[in-house]
Amino acid sequence: MEINNIRKGGSSKQSGLSNADKVLIHMRYLITSRFEDAYDVVLKLIQVFIEKVGDVLPEVGELLNAVANLKVSYNIYDTWESCIGTFMS
After folding, report:
1. pTM of this prediction?
2. Separation of alpha carbons 31 and 66, rounded Å
């Protein structure tokens, strides 16, 4: 719902969302089941995102919780584990 409002061109004042909130919404969208086949790439993207700007975002704990609760396959377990480690460092 929030993503649809952003895409319709609602401004931050209208939606009450900051730019950081909008980015986090899109990052959360990347870890939905729609992109399950690309979790390897998505987790690497999230890892870099956290390395670069994670320390300035207060809501990053919610993203960590979402990543930690993912059901990942064995072949991307190492990438998932590395991504969670980035949150911790």
Report:
1. 0.75
2. 8
